[in-house]
Amino acid sequence: MTTLSPEEDAVSRGWKALSTLLVTAGRHKDSVPKEGSFVNPPLHRGSTVIYPSVAAMRDTEGLQYEHHTLYGAMGSPNQHELEKVVALIEGGSHSQVVSSGLTACTLPLLTFLSAGDHCLLIDSIYGPTKRFSEKVMKKFDVEVSYYPADISVAEIEKYLQPNTKVIFTESPGSHTFEIQDISALSKLAHQHHIKLFLDNTWGIGVFKPFEHGVDVSVQALTKYANGHSDLVLGAITVNNDADWHLLRDTAIALGEVGGSDACWLTLRGLRTLGARLEKQSISALTIAQWLQEQPEIERVLHPALPSCYGHEIWKRDFSGASSVFTIVFKPSITSQQVIDMIETLEFFAIGASWGGYESLVLLTDGEIYRNFPNKLLTGSACRLQIGLEDPQDIINDLHNAFTAIWRS
Ligand SMILES: *Cc1c(COP(=O)(O)O)cnc(C)c1O
Predict the structure, then answer these.
(1) CATH homologous superfamily of domain 273-407?
(2) Which of 126, 171, 224 gets mutated to test ligand 1 (max ligand atoms within 8 A of its CB)?
(3) Digit-coded pLDDT (tens) for 93-118
(4) Global confidence as pTM
(5) Which family does it belong to (predicted)?
(6) All structural domains of the chain with their residue ranges
(7) Whose CA is nearest to atom 6 of ligand 1?
(8) Residues 41 and 69 sit within 8 Å (Cβ to Cβ)
């Protein structure tokens, strides 16, 4: 067995610890039927659920909170199997699977906010969550405002209003990867009777939201959970019955579901999440460290590196890392040079999203909508998602592209 450096251990430790849970959750040899069965559960497609008698149908009343299949638009057996596993990974009491990661952001806003309330979002929140808040929540008379991603919790308090009901944060933040002190933020929120929402997509498996006082945790299962870039799906996890009933009622009221095929594939993807991320997180760190040494790079925004805002909190609160991060170039490198470099790369496809088995690159200049100036983005920047390729091939690819565009 190769020995890991302390840095490699810090990004991959959590994945090792989680691997057995990921493989065994919801599967036990005692539940295998006498006549035998396949390893993976069957795929169930359906709308109507039929019953042998009126009495049997009436007996299902009230079971909508019990992950019971009542109607296709309220979830399928595949969705409910996945919900139980996601709740275990997130460490909450119940999860609701929904049609996309974006819906996982919007459904809790619709659930926990009413006209006249105020919602405070972190500036580095996933962009489409901002778009929804601006375009939809404001229409229903919910006030929306933002706080900078690089201020202390004491400073965040100044952004609260008497009618603030939700703080929606993301840690690390989209594109700029600022890590937040979630424990301190949840204390502040609860002192003011505010619910704290966390978009925990980057931290899946390696950040335990409910141990830090989060009320609602959001996952884009599209990303590492599914891991193969072939579907979109999301999940919302809460940690008590009252919140669960409100969330579930809203999902049913909207007819919000995750399709059976997507749920089946995501549950299959989750079985290998530990193995994929153990490798991808170490590869990403190796590549991030190499990039940090290159003369054209101003800084690398990866939570496991000291140049990332909140690195010390990452060390304290996270048991690992995922494999997406941002590089910021020196001001002497032009945006056009970065575009040319990106287009020269062999192993990086150009694309948004992340979390698959393949490497991706995304130019982020001006693509991210911010309400406050960001001190970290001092030059042209791009986000890298590192896949399962050999990290040395990726480093060679980056080296060749740098050489072709500005080193020759
Ligand atoms: C991708 C992403 C989402 C949305 O997921 P989709 O399934 O693509 O809608 C939400 N939050 C974060 C942090 C994401 O990266």
Answers:
(1) Aspartate Aminotransferase, domain 1 (3.90.1150.10)
(2) 126
(3) 999 999 999 999 999 999 999 999 99
(4) 0.97
(5) Belongs to the trans-sulfuration enzymes family.
(6) 20-270, 273-407
(7) 101
(8) no
